[in-house]
Amino acid sequence: MKLLEDRIREEGTVKPGDVLKVDAFLNHQCDVALFDKMGEEWARLFKGVRIDKILTIEASGIGIACIAARHFNNAPVVFAKKAQSINLDGEQYSTTIYSFTKQKEFPVIVGKRFLNEGEHVLIIDDFLANGNALNGLLEICESAGVIVEGFAIAVEKGFQGGGDALRQRGYRVESLANVRTMDATTGTIEFN
């Protein structure tokens, strides 16, 4: 999606350690108009696919998923929590994932009442690097018996292989910006 790629080139910052900082518009300060265009594009890409619910992970995926849901007949958005809370009651699906950006493992939890066997789910997230978070969400989806129709990703760091691994397993991955290379020294970003 050229609009997103242009924003990344203009406002994104490449940091050492393969970190792409896009907090000015994607995951700290949110450009809602951009999110709406992203949702519109995913709806075009997944046209004709049944989507009963959208699943994401806190925190950065929530805003994007909520705005995108408007383009999927206002499908409910379920988000996996990264910590146990007194607000989480009843039975839960849980797993542990490793965060590339936070450099640590943490639990991921979804209340069982929010994912029902046979539902068709679209997983939305802001980034796809190694695929750890998405594999954790897949594990939860498998436990719930839902049908994962695909992944809608804002920015895929294609050189890190997470998207390719999901595609090799037969999953549909639609990334709006797929970074081929980026260089912290020069600040350059190249897209596929």
User: How many strand elements?
Assistant: 10
CATH structural fold name: Rossmann fold
The sequence of SSEs as H and E is HEEHHEHEEEEHEHEE
Q: Percent of residues in beta strands?
A: 25-35%
Rounded to the nearest angstrom, the radius of gyration is 16 Å
Euclidean distance between termini CA atoms: 11 Å
Number of helices: 6
Calculate the mean pLDDT score and round it: 94
Shape designation? globular
Task: Tell me the major beta sheet.
Answer: 6 strands, mixed
**Backbone structural class:** alpha/beta
Q: Considering DSSP H and I runs of 4 or more, what fraction of the residues is helical?
A: 25-40%
Quaternary structure type: single chain
Neighbour order of strands in the largest sheet: 4-3-7-8-9-10
CATH architecture: 3-Layer(aba) Sandwich
CATH class: Alpha Beta
Question: Which spans of ≥5 residues are poorly predicted at pLDDT below 50?
Answer: none
EC number: 2.4.2.22
Domain Phosphoribosyltransferase: 51-157
Pathway: Purine metabolism; XMP biosynthesis via salvage pathway; XMP from xanthine: step 1/1
Catalytic activity: XMP + diphosphate = xanthine + 5-phospho-alpha-D-ribose 1-diphosphate
